[in-house]
Amino acid sequence: MVVADSSRTLETRSAGLLDGQPRITVPSISKKIEAQLQGLGVGYLPVHRIQQELQIGQLIALEVEHVDQREREIHLAWNKNNKGKALAWFVKKIQSLEPALFLSC
C-alpha cells in the first residue's frame, strides 16, 4: 500500500517499493491508515499517527530486516529570504531532533 506522489512539477518518485509486487495507491497518508485498518494491505506508516491503533491492537508493528537509509531521508527547503519567527522556530525544532543529520544553507 502506497501514497501517490503529489508532485505536480517534479519527476515522480518512489521509495520502499518492491518491483513486481501488486500495490494499492491511495491519495493521502490518512487514507493509507484507513485502508490498512480495514485489512486491505500493508506498508510503512508514521508511528506518531497510529499510536492508539498500535496500543489497542488494531495495527501490529513488524520489524523489517533492512531499511535503506535513503528511505529515512527527508528534504526540506524554504525561501532563504523568509525571516519570519514561525519559520525560525520550525527550523530550530527540526534541527534539535538529530543535529548531525541536518545541514544549514
Overview of the structural elements:
- The protein is 26% helix and 4% strand.
- The protein contains 3 helices and 2 strands.
- The protein has helices at 29-37, 51-55, 85-97; strands at residues 2-3, 25-26.
- A two-stranded parallel sheet has the order 1-2.
- The longest helix has 13 residues, at 85-97.
- The protein is extended.
Main features:
105 residues; mainly alpha; two-stranded parallel ribbon; 3 helices; 2 strands; disordered C terminus
Q: How far is it from the N-terminal to the C-terminal residue, by CA?
A: 35 Å
Q: Mind describing the biggest β-sheet?
A: 2 strands, parallel
- Portion of residues in beta strands equals under 5%
How would you describe the shape? extended
Cα-atom radius of gyration: 17 Å
Unreliable spans: 100-105
Topology:
Blueprint: E1 2-3, E2 25-26, H1 29-37, H2 51-55, H3 85-97
